[in-house]
Amino acid sequence: MADKRVVYLKFTTVDGKNTSISISAPRAGLTLAEARKAANVLLAHKVVLGAGDTELSKFISANEVTTQTTPLV
Q1: Alpha-helical runs (H) found in the chain
Q2: What is the pTM of this model?
Q3: What is the DSSP letter of 1?
C-alpha cells in the first residue's frame, strides 16, 4: 500500500474567482500557520498567477488530502 499526500493552498484572484496551488510532496506535520506564511510569500512576490494570468489577491485556506492506493490481488 502507498499513501499519497497533497496540500492544496486556496486563493482568491483579483476578479473574485477561486484558484488553488497543489504541493505534491509536503513536509509531514505542516501546520496552517506555516502554509499561510508560504502562501503570503507567494502573494507578495506574485510567484503564481490564476487562470488568464489573473493576479492572486488573498489566501483563503489550506487542506491536506491523503489517498491510499492498494494493489488488487
Answers
A1: 32-44
A2: 0.87
A3: -
Contact partners, residue 27, CB within 8 Å, separation at least 6: none
Query: Residues 22-65: pLDDT tens digits?
Result: 999 999 999 999 999 999 999 999 999 988 899 999 999 999 99
Alpha carbon distance 47, 13 (integer Å): 13
Q: How far apart are CA 56 and CA 49, in angstroms?
A: 6
d(CA 17, CA 30): 26
| Residue 17: φ, ψ to 5° | -90, 160
Enumerate residues 6+ apart whose C-beta is below 8 A from 2. Answer: 68, 69
**Amino acid, res. 20:** S
CA angle (10, 42, 38) in 5-degree steps: 75
DSSP state of 27: P
